Known about the structure:
CATH topology of the largest domain: Farnesyl Diphosphate Synthase
Radius of gyration: 30 Å
Strand content: under 5%
Order of helices and strands: EHEEHHHHEEHHHHHHHHHH
Bound molecules: geranylgeranyl diphosphate
Amino acid sequence: MIGFCRSNCLGSTVxxxxxxxxxxxDNVCDAKSCPRDDRLEVDQFIDHIxxxxxxxxxxxxxxxxxxxxxTTEGNVSSCTQAFNERHQxxxxxxxxxxxxxxxxxxxCPKDLKAAIxxxxxxxxxxxxxxxxxxxxxxxxxxxxxxxxxxxxVEMIHTYSLIxxxxxxxxxxxxxxxxxxxxxKFGEAVAILAGDALLAQAFEVISRDTSPSEVxxxxxxxxxxxxxxxHLVGGQADDLDAEQRDDLxxxxxxxxxxxxxxxxxxxxxxxGAFVANADAGMLEKLTIFGENIGLAFQxxxxxxxxxxxxxxxxxxxxxxxxxxxxxxxxxxxxxxSKRKADKLIDDAIxxxxxxxxxxxxxxxxxQFILNRTY
Length: 373
Ligand code: GRG
């Protein structure tokens, strides 16, 4: 009977390349001529082929996986780098413009101006204005055209922080690493500083954004988001939630989508409006914003539980130590982190059609997930 000599194929199941080398060198033999009578029968040979096929398939899968990991890691690190570089450059431009907008000439009462500038120009991440500018760039628009909307959203955000820190709300003396506005200037001036920033945001967009149809779209977007349906409504829900012990995960999500998520989404949408983005781009940026907005809040809860107060610049542990419902209390640390990971993955997926134009935004999504401040 014809078989295949095992004498030279011994390593073949472990190292199949040798096995094929054996075939190439024609190690076929029969029982009589094989000195060690050491033949492989046909079914054993087929078994070897199958093992080889499995080995080869696994090798291919591993190589493909390795390639994917390298590609993804390469992309992720290039997106992180793209974001870090652009974030630094844009922060300088944003802060220069905020400085100009809060100059007011001689017309603004001294204390009020000092209170506004204390809060507005304090060290901060400038995430929302950066989102406006990066969204505009991702849609082929220009930073200069989007700058008024970017500054406006930072003004609204700063007003909300000033009012949130008041004794009637969260009652906090530390914000952005400095005494909160009312702690330094008194409650009345802090309330007025917040009011002035809220009004100025719409002054800046309507006067400095062109064409006027785009300015109107941005004003409608931002005023809706800053109002009773979203930011203020979310804050009212949040205050109400402190008195309740029957809240579920869906309630928590609803509060944060309104209070934190909506401003993040609107920042992206305003950037898209300024760049004349098409409906498809607007939709994808909105989905991106929904996902990073919720992830931002989950990470905020994680940082409240285990962050470094000196890095973050606001009081920590208040939410975790109070009765207030947080993601960490509801789901625990690991599950909260998993939820944030999944949201960021979904966010990144929604930007895949933007190509390299979307890379800084993808880097920003990674920053939100990994931030320590
Ligand atoms: C008073 C109308 C009104 C609303 C208050 C935004 C808000 C609603 C309250 C702020 C309190 C808080 C901790 C909210 C959750 C997340 C959040 C908005 C944090 C602060 O934003 P960051 O981390 O801060 O972007 P910086 O200082 O970097 O801008």
